[in-house]
Every structure is written in C-alpha cells, then in structure tokens.
Amino acid sequence: MIVDLSGRITLGEGSVVLRDLVRDLLNKGSKRILLNLGDVTYIDSSGIGELVSAFTTVRNGGGDLKLLNLTKKVHDLLQITKLYTVFDIKDDEAAAVSSFSK
Amino acid sequence: MADMTAMRVSYRMDSTLESVNQAEDLATRVAAKAGFDEEGVNRISMAVREAAVNAVLHGNAYDPNKKMTVGFESTSAALVITVSDEGRGIHPNDIPDPLKPENLLKQSGRGIFLMRAFMDEVRIRSLEPGTEITMIKNVQGEGAEGKEESK
Lengths: 102, 151
Hints:
The complex is a heterodimer.
Chain A: E1 2-9, H1 14-27, E2 32-43, H2 45-60, E3 64-68, H3 72-80, E4 88-90, H4 93-100
Parallel strand pairs in A: 1-2, 2-3, 3-4
Helix pairs in contact in A: 1-2
Chain B: E1 7-14, H1 17-33, H2 38-59, E2 67-74, E3 78-84, H3 111-118, E4 121-126, E5 131-138
Antiparallel strand pairs in B: 1-2, 2-3, 3-5, 4-5
Helix pairs in contact in B: 1-2, 2-3
C-alpha cells in the first residue's frame, strides 16, 4: 500500500491524520505500508514522533513501514535525530514496492 | 549592509496551537529580515516552533489563564529569541538524550535536542513559575554569511 502524504506533519495538523491513516490501514489488513513523503514540506518533532510511532505500530503488528522520496529538509531531520538508520528509506517507488516481498 | 540598529519585540500569546503557528511565522519573518538565508530561516523557525510547542503543550498545558511570551532581539551580531511559559517548569538534567538507543524509538523528547541542533546556543532557565528558553543564532554563523538581500 503506497500512501502519498503532502503538506505539513506537525502537532495539530498532519500528526493526527497520519496516526488515523496508519491505524485504518492496519485495521483493513494492510501490513506493508510505503509512505511517500515527496510532497511533505515540513515535519516538526511531533511529526517525527508520529512517524516513529507508526513505524513501531506497524512492525509490532507483523508488518513493515518504509519511507519514500524524502525531501532534503526531511532527510536532514532524520539524519540529525539518528532515525535515518532506523527507517528503511527508498528513492525509487518500484524498487521500494518490490523490496517488501523479499 | 549590516547596521548597528537593534530591533526588539515581544508578544504575549494564549496557550493555543494557533499561537505556536503564529510564533513560527513571526520567527520566519524576523529571521528573513535579519538577513539569514533560506536554510538559516528554516532552522530558526523550526527551533522556535519546538520551543513554542513545549511552552504551550508541556509548560502551560493549554491553560487559558497561562500565557506564552515570545521575544525577538535582532542585532548586527545575532538573533536572540526567548520563549517563556508559566507552567510547572522543567529541569535541564531531566531531559533525556533522544539519540540514545533506548530513546531512539520514543514518540517524544526531541524538541530541545532539535533547538540545540538548529541554533548556535540554547539556554534553559527556570522561572517562578515557568520556563524560559533563550535561543541564539549568530549572524556570522552558517545562516547569513555573504548573502545580502537586494531589495
């Protein structure tokens, strides 16, 4: 399941949307989630927390959550917070999709 | 040309999410006016957003009777921003390191770390009651070097 996110993932804006979305996907049985962050312009610490929470929730449910198309800003943030090594981050959608089935 | 004129403003705001967004927007404008480049402006406004979230959410806990104060002081040498709340206060020693392996997957606890990453200096002071965070970005730093706005 590829999810295209856009805009801001911050406290009071995208954070709740992201949380609800991931919960819905899991409830519907989607366990392989690829979050396309290509059009995400801004993430704050709440947004980072929400991404981490989504990641652990999906993993604990026996699935996998990967990130696609990070902007420089988001890339830098994940690097600073050392989460770059935690998340599986992809640049190519097709390769990302096929990486799930391995 | 940088001049010696100092600019100082301060805003007293309600403890709401709108105030957080407002503080972020103000920081963006003040930082741009101070001559920081796009990346510098981004970093400053992100740091201010983190401080404002802390003040409104963790400090004042959205209490309508408690206010957040955001102050900007811009000189030719630095931009100094203070964000204070009237909450129960934090102890700097109690702030966990979000880069420790056991904290890496925690949902929260990255705000002050990000402020320190984005600014040149961050000081935390306990008020009676509340907390004051002072953040400094030097003009000579990575922010504004060699780039002058032509208007």
